[in-house]
Amino acid sequence: MKRVSITILTMIIIGGVVFSGYKLYEYKEKAISEVEVMLFTPSVVESEINTKRIVNEEILANENTLKEKNSDYRMWIKMDETNINYPVLQGEDNDFYLYADFDGNYYYPGSIFIDYRNDIENDNNLWIFGHNMADGSMFADLVKLKDETYFNENPEIILVKDGIQYIYEIFAVNVVPADGAEIVLDFDNEDEMNRYMERVKEESIFYRDIKAEDIVEEEGISSLITMVTCSYEFDDARTLVSAALKPVE
To answer: NCBIfam families of this UniProt entry (predicted)?
Structure first.
């Protein structure tokens, strides 16, 4: 099992700073960058979605443009009926994109980013971080999953990578202290993944009963994702949302 000994960091100073209104002038008045006008909604050919993964050529072209603009671009993340619709980056550490935009300029809300230690092509569990902004942007909508009705009505997260759409089913939402959850990036076998998932579900507010043997493994994409943002139940609280890759039907 590939673990990270430092727990949920300090790295996520995401919860250490209260993103109050007086700071948001910088966000609201920021000039729109080229990437911000490239927001797209992943789509696939409906007649083929149930039989195989489809490369959407238009989305692939958009992604290639993003990669040309910033080689740290890894994928796109989207959650329907929320503000979550962003490029996902990966830096050389977990500090840079806390307060940098897609172009690498200072930007108070930061960017959505993957843990720099994740091997995206091979790890079983991608850790994805984002600020909980007071205006509802970035990963703020994740904390709504602590409401049971919202959790039941919003079960999916979409990742788009290399023009292909992957749908993940949210199976747990947790609130933990910043130093209270070990970051597990990979598993040696299915039993390890099952034990990890069971532990996550035991500590969760709500969960769906998904097991490791039900999760599809596909080359080039992670079986699990864990999304992290700050919350305010107590000092240095973090909301963790865990999701598992759904097979094509």
So the answer is: sortase_srtB
How many helices and strands (H and E) does the chain possess? Answer: 4, 11
User: Which token pair is 87?
Assistant: 């490029």
Cα 123 to Cα 190: distance, rounded to the nearest angstrom: 13
Q: Is the pLDDT of residue 134 over 80?
A: yes
Higher-pLDDT residue of 217 and 139 is: 139
Average pLDDT along the chain:
80
What does the DSSP 8-state code read for residue 247?
A: P
DSSP per-residue codes, 143-162 = GGGGSHHHHHH--EEEEEET
Length of the chain (residues): 249
The predicted structure's pLDDT at residue 17 = 39
Look up residue 132 and give its DSSP letter: B
pTM of the model: 0.84
pLDDT of 42: 52
Integer Cα distance of 212 and 214 in angstroms:
5
